[in-house]
Amino acid sequence: MVDLQGQYKKIRWQVNREIKKVLKSAAFINGPIVKEFETNLKDFLGTKNVIPCANGTDALQVALMSLGLDKGDEVITTNFSFASTIEVILLLGLKPILVDIDSKTFNIDPAMIKNRITSRTKAIIPVHLYGQSCRMNEIMEIAKENKLFVIEDNAQALGSKVKLSNSTKVMSGTIGDIGTTSFFPSKNLGGYGDGGAIFTNSDDLAFKMRGIVNHGMYKRYYHDEIGVNSRLDSIQAAILNVKLKYLDIYNKRRIAAATEYNSRLESISEIETPYLESDSDSHVFHQYTIKVKNGKRDKLAEFLSSKEIPFGIYYPLGFHEQKAYRNNFNQSENFENTNIVKDQVISLPMHTELSKSQIDFICNSIKEFFSNN
Asked: Are residues 91 and 68 part of one domain?
């Protein structure tokens, strides 16, 4: 699904040099390279503040902790995503209000958000799933009308762009009150271990979150609030600082690979290739996810396995079906689109090192399957 070794080989002299600098300095925690990466990521995103942390899940939790919410307050989010999004809501004693997705984009449907807002609703967490940015103009309008916070889960879409209502473009993750991301190795900007970051244009929120990630300290050994221990270590910052220089190139390669996939697969009537809602730079293809019709997804998965072609099914269940979560929210929503899409989606290999011959083999194999089934 990913080729991290191939990617590393092309930049290894830079990565190795920066790691050696950290080893020589022995500044393994909160070293100067962490601050340098923070500044570079801030410039890349065009945001005022970046707070590095230990992973993407912590980023979401710290973001929620900074808002001063009370136990039982409601947070609206998508029903179809990775577990971190709902996990942190529940861990903080908040109530997740799940909303169905748009069946084309797989992202939260803004039109359905309005029906889920109550007097206890305090925030919305849209997830830019598979690399495609959400309809942030509509979401921000709803949030403004109802005085709600917005935390963008940007773990899968770092570098994608959103066209605002005035036609200017900004980076996803910088539109809401807070944005979060993950540097898990397979991400578009991935480290060689865990890592994450939070970004905001609010200096007040940034100040609070800097304390929260460091045990609630703003002055050493003076704990002003409940915090956590969530820091990006210097070696990961050094690696990410190198890879950040290539992120635009990496994303362009993913878009090019997706375009090649589309040209080869669009003729297959039983497949829906990824729907692009806006401009080409609004989707950076963390995953290349197709929909397989007529109940043939699982058979296709078996066939790909027989050809030793990797694939992923992200995600096999909506949150409303997961054992850990199903008793923790109002189930009045029927989640029609989630229930259909979860049995159709399958993700094909997608990474920066994909060659045309690899895409040819994958697509020819898929055509072979549908010609015989």
From this structure: yes
